[in-house]
Amino acid sequence: MSRQVLMTDLTMDTGVQELLVKAEQETIETAFQRAKEQEPHCKFGLTGVCCRRCLQGPCRVTFNGNKGVKRGVCGATADQIVARNLLSLIVEGTTPHVEHAREILHTLLETAEGKAPYEIKGKEKLIAIGKQLGLMVDGVELDKLAREVALIALQDFQQQSGVSHWLRLRAQEQSVETWEKLNILPSNAHLEIANAINKTAMGCESDPVSLLLAIMKMGLVEGYDGLHLSTDLQDILFGTPRLVKTQYRMGVIKEDYVNIAVHGHIPMVSEKILEWSRKLNNKAQALGAQGINIVGICCSANELLMRQGVAVATNYASQELAIITGALEAMVVDAQCIMPGLAQVAECYHTELISTLPNIKIEGASHVDWTPEAADQMGEEIVRRALAHYPERDQSKVRIPGDTVEAYAGFSVEQIVELLAALNGPDPLLPLIEAIAQGDILGVVAIVGCTNPKVKQDWANTEVAKELMRNNVLVVATGCSAHSLGKNGLLSPAGLQYCGEKLASVLTAIGQANGLPALPPALHMGSCVDNSRIDDLLVALATRMGVAVRELPVAGSSPENHSPKALSIGTFFIAQGVDVHIGVNAPITGSPLVEQALTANKGEFSVTTDELFGGKLIYEADPIQAAQTMIVRIMQKRQALGLVC
Ligand code: SF4
Ligand code: MSK
To answer: Exposure check for the chain: N or C terminus, fewer CB within 10 A?
Structure first.
């Protein structure tokens, strides 16, 4: 097999292919190579039947039901071990989002109290949320209102009883009734996480059904005090996204600029880097550069893209390759999805890898502390360091793949409603609902989540999207999947060529009513925490249609999932009654009970999430098959609603 074929097998991104060849020439190791070195993977790990919860083990029990031992030393069965391990994994997915929400909450509180150098840019969002929380908003100063909102949010981390305020704020009543009956309404995110860890501890909970309900409860913690709380407070602080146009691919790194990549998730860090890059832009010119160029990776990219139109270099699996261009003066990281391998790659160049969060340090990286109060000092210090590295750049090591692709983003629910209002001002959701009812839009599927070096980068994400579009399914996207679609032209009106005729004419009509040639076939709705925006859209549609969310002809798909966060987000949507497809299987197949409960593939175990909530897990590695499976389900839900089929 030639080298080019090998690189082509690893990623669809031609820029990344080119940089993988460069990495090989310079003997630099990347995640793509390390993924191959891990093969074949341990079957006990893959199927979830390895337990390391106490020092009598590790215990490995049978994963195919007949060969091997059936119980661990303590007597735990495969069902019990798999359910406990899955709950741990969902906690590991939920906790980073809950901590993300807590960081933004404190930043908002300190901003409102005049202690942090941020500005409340989302006045309308603040007033809307204040009203929904039952606060007095008329004539109240913005800072005072923001403080009250932040203090209510803080109760979701402190109260010892009652129901999460953000769940009450954002959930549809029908869903709350379902969750109440099952006794899974969460009250305090930290308490629920502690309870879940306690359940999984050795010698604690061993009833797999109770563990499965704890998994669903954790999905609600993820949804409301992770995703929704983060998005709402970020919109208050930084503003609600509106339509923006940008560029994608490694070519957004510019040879004649001081380049800084922001990577991770926390917009309080990346927004400050952007702000200081603008303030110190003239210093770059004094060094002979054209200016300072900020590019994004992963969800820091999404945050800056959605609100500021900043260009996106790449997504998760190829984060190391951005450094291999040889043209990054600094890579600034905060939290989540930061590969430890970045430090090793940065050592080969003049690039400074800089961590920023006080409680997240990266071996081999330098550190500049971000706190809400010290945000300006951090921003200035990091940008000045990047400027200082520009003269150290070794031009002989610079190779930036040339091409870029145009993309649109900024599709908050507020922006979507505004675009639809051009068709029907008094009732903006009606044109969308009519298009769904008539079958011009067959359904809506959210393509979310990651890239994973186990899967050819961007391939499954784009294949699922194209197959859905071809069948007139409207695609919305977040996270690194949105980047996959962006890199491949599906966030641009040019991508309309992949749509069925009916979908294309709806997107063209909405676009033209707003002075655009058309809307893109996939609407980019933001970062991983912005999956809350997708949930808001579903709740708004269901409420306007007078049905429950679980009845809508919609689904979610994460074709290249790698992070436990993709699984916890998926769990939240299953709890809402939405089917969720994953392309890389979760470690559940060692337990028939857990697998059947989540996938509703009939077996002797009769209680399934499909029956309890209206949503189930679909595992399918083949993207075309996955899209077809979701379409079958969408058709079933359409039929049940009496819509044109
Ligand atoms: Fe083995 Fe039980 Fe300990 Fe797990 S908790 S390692 S199954 S003895
Ligand atoms: S960054 S969780 S790889 S989407 Fe949100 Fe991308 Fe998945 Fe991380």
So the answer is: N
Q: For a ligand 1 pocket test, name from 44, 54, 81, 82 the mutation site with the most ligand atoms within 8 angstroms of its C-beta.
A: 54
* pLDDT tens-place string over residues 442-455: 999 999 999 999 99
With beta carbons less than 8 A apart as the criterion, state whether 480 and 451 touch: yes
pLDDT on residue 65? 72
Token pair 């997240």: residue = 360
Distance 57 CA to ligand 1 centre (A): 5
Atom of ligand 1 nearest to the CA of 59: 1
The alpha carbon of 586 and the centre of ligand 1 are apart by a number of angstroms equal to: 21
Q: Do domains 92-238 and 409-641 have the same CATH topology?
A: no
CATH class of 250-397: alpha beta
pLDDT digits (tens, 9 = 90+) for 468-522: 999 999 999 999 999 999 999 999 999 999 999 999 999 999 999 999 999 999 9
Query: pLDDT of 326-336, one tens digit each?
Result: 999 999 999 99
State whether the beta carbon of 61 lies less than 6 angstroms from ligand 1. Answer: no
Closest ligand (CA of 480): 2
The single-letter code of the amino acid at 483 is H
Burial class (CB in 10 A: 0-12, 13-18, 19+), 29: middle
ipTM of the complex: 0.95
- Does the beta carbon of 479 lie inside 6 Å of ligand 2? yes
CATH code for residues 409-641: 3.40.50.2030
Which of 454, 472, 630 is closest to 552 using CA atoms?
A: 630
- Pocket test of ligand 1: the residue of 63, 81, 88 to mutate, having most ligand atoms within 8 Å of its CB, is 81
From the CA of 568, the nearest ligand is 2
For residue 529, what are the contacts with CB-CB under 8 A and spacing of at least 6? 97, 100, 101, 226, 227, 230, 231, 234, 265, 299
Token output for 57: 């083990």
Please state the pTM of the whole predicted model: 0.97
Q: Give domain 92-238's CATH architecture.
A: Up-down Bundle (1.20)
